[in-house]
Structures are given as C-alpha cells and as structure tokens.
Write a structure and sequence with these properties.
This protein has one helix spanning about 35-65, and strands at about 15-20, 80-90, 90-100, 110, 120-130, 135-150, 155-160, 160-165, 170-190, 190-210, 215-235, 240-255, 255-270, 275-295, 295-315. By secondary structure, it is mainly beta. The chain has a single domain (about 15-315), classed as Lipocalin (Beta Barrel). It is elongated.
Length: about 325
C-alpha cells in the first residue's frame, strides 16, 4: 500500500540573496547573433517531446489495464514494500519577490512571464514500507527544473539590483524535493483504509535572474525542511478498482517566517494481478511563504495542479 503524498513545502530558512556584478557562469545569454526566435523554437520542441512522453505513459497504462487477464482479487494492503514511479503534468504558477537591503520593495515577479514554461512533466519516485497492520513509513522524491528567456517591458527590481525596461533576461527556478514520513492507520481492512501521516519535507530551492551580458544578476537559494501533516483514505470500488485520496494543511509563524501550505489529491487505481497497480490522479499544491529575515525579505507563492499517471509494484 502506498499513498503518494506528493506535496512540497518551502520555508525560506537561511535564504541569502547576493548582488553580482560579474557574469553568472551557470546562466549565460546566447550570443548576439543567435536570435530569440531560435530559442523559442527550442523550447517549443522541448515541450512537444515532454508532452508526447506524458501521453505515452498514459496510453501505456490504459493498454496494460485493458489487456490484463482477470486474476483473483488482490489484497491492496498486505504488501510489505511498494515502489512507485510516476509522471506529474501540472499547470505551474510561481511568483517571487525579493526586497532590497534598505527596505525597498522588490517587484512581484511571475516567473512564467519571464519565459518559464507554465506546464512541465515532473518524474517522481516513491517507496513505502508497511511495518505492520497499523504502522508504515513512506518517502518520495521529485524535481522541478525550469528556465526561460524574455525581454522586459517594465522595470524589475530584485534585491538591490534594478533591471531596466527592454532588458534581455535569462531566469531559472529549480526545486529538488525529498520527503520522509510516518503513517498510522485507524482503519485498515481489505475494502477500506483511513489514517493520518506526519513527515518532514526538505526542498532545495534555487532562483536566478540575469541581464544582458551578465552585467546585472541576482541569485537566491535555500535548503528548507518543514514538518507536514495530513489524512489519507481509500475504498475498494470493485474487485480491481480502488478510489483513494489525501489532504493536508500546514501553517506556521516561526520567528521571522510566516507560511501556509495546502494540498490535496484524488486518485483511481487499477490492480493488475497481485503485484502491479496503475493509477491516474489529480493533485494540487499551494505554498505561500513570507520572510522578514535580514538575509532575505520577500515572498514566494508557488502553486501547481494537474493530472498524474503512476505505476506501482507491491512485494
């Protein structure tokens, strides 16, 4: 049994912003002779490849389901170990504000307006250990990597750096998420399940924006752990079909940090024999964190929602 609790959280603890007046080596503008049209064509081709990969995974899931031979009813909760791989294709909305050292407000930046794709296919990996009838441990990992190119039509202030109108800008936003948690089942029988989960979610966040020729640049990064809490439940609809979901909320004001996280997931799984399951899900996550710490004063609002496909092996 594995309930993929695929949510992330960000509390920008230890987030430092530094002003750079030298080229940022990890983020370079294209040569002057390379047109923005070619760059846009590259991103369009990348999107089409990822989109086809997602559709292939969905089609494969339905193909396997349609051709699976009927087997005796599997026990979805008896497996000691479960390994899950999936692909999540959300719509993404990311807004960031980084204020200056002297209290000057930074610009509220919607990262998608800086050329970052607003939809991505995010691969994920999950492992679940059912210790006994009541207790379990779970973990998962996924990554978000986005970058883009744009030309500003307004003045943008990030930290202590100001990017003038009509500036060519490269930007990126990356996140690596690892979570580990504990689950307790109040109810766990062959037809239904209900329990709660608590865990620790660690995100490694990186953000950067660079002007033409690297003369103006700002970067910010953080590694942030945050406790998580939520409920999970499931019900067997028929011999092989299973409906499940989870929901969670976390809000905290710790010293100079104030944040809230909400998430939910609804999924439908089909058990193929005793060991293999394929599922479709809809997921939503929203993170809103603000900070008045001297090392970073600003705000991050991050939301994604969309469908996912998942393949699970129980043993």
């Amino acid at each position: 049994m594995f309930f993929e609790y695929m949510h992330g959280s960000v509390v920008q603890l230890g987030l430092g912003v530094r002003q750079c007046h030298y080229p940022y080596k990890g983020l370079q503008l294209p040569a002057a002779k390379v047109s923005s049209k070619i760059l846009r064509m590259g991103w369009i081709m990348r999107f089409r490849v990822i989109n086809r990969l997602f559709l292939l995974l969905v089609s494969l899931g339905f193909l396997v389901t349609a051709n699976a031979a009927a087997d005796e009813s599997p026990d979805l909760f008896s497996a000691e170990w479960s390994i899950s791989v999936g692909a999540f294709r959300p719509q993404i909305d990311t807004s960031i504000r980084v204020d200056g050292a002297l209290g000057i407000l930074g610009t509220e930046i919607n990262m998608e307006t800086l050329g970052l794709d607003d939809t991505e296919v995010l691969p994920s990996l999950g492992i679940d250990w059912q210790i006994n009838h009541r207790h379990s441990l779970w973990s998962y990992y996924f990554e978000v990597k986005r970058s883009g190119f744009s030309n500003t039509d307004i003045i943008i202030r990030v930290g202590d750096t100001e990017f003038p109108v009509n500036t060519n800008i490269n930007a990126f936003f990356n996140a690596k998420v690892f979570a580990l948690g504990y689950g307790y089942a109040f109810v766990n029988d062959p037809d239904k399940f209900f329990g709660f989960q608590v865990g620790l979610n660690v995100q490694d966040i990186g953000f950067g924006i660079e002007g033409e020729n690297g003369i103006l640049a700002e970067t910010a990064e953080a590694t942030a752990p945050l406790p998580t809490f939520g409920f999970v439940g499931g019900y067997r609809l028929s011999e092989h079909w299973y409906l499940s979901g989870n929901a969670g909320y976390f809000a905290a004001k710790i010293d100079t940090y104030d944040g809230a996280i909400t998430q939910y997931e609804a999924r439908l799984d089909y058990a193929i024999g005793e060991h293999v399951m394929v599922g479709l899900a809809f997921q939503n996550l929203k993170v809103d964190v603000s900070s008045t710490d001297s090392r970073w004063v600003g705000n991050l609002l991050y939301e994604y929602q969309g469908p996912s496909v998942n393949f699970r092996y129980n043993f």
